[in-house]
Amino acid sequence: MITPLDAGVVVAGLLLAFVGAAVSVYAVSLTGLLIGAGAGYLAVPALSGLVTADGLVVPAAAVAVGGALGGFLAYTGLSVAVLAIGGVVRVSTTPTSAPTIAPPYRSLSSASIAEAYA
Prior knowledge:
Elements: H1 4-23, H2 25-42, H3 44-48, H4 57-93, H5 110-116
Helix pairs in contact: 1-2, 2-4
């Protein structure tokens, strides 16, 4: 029987694992690669009827393509998530709560500095 203490330890471990994975791009990409490779391996029975090749080529290709696709999607997903979080933080910290664009870069001359402090 699972006690509340056991469940709490498991939940805390899962939270730490996911927080650690979210912090590290490499961990997220590796997780996506492994999940994609597993999905590619599971797709082999469906592919083996469509593709005629040596018995070891189809599973190896499916695992390689699935892993590459999974790693790419995980990395892209993390990038989009970080971009969305940055947008939310930027919008919530502006006084008008409207998205703002940084002013264009201007070279600082002694005249512009004097004008700013006048």
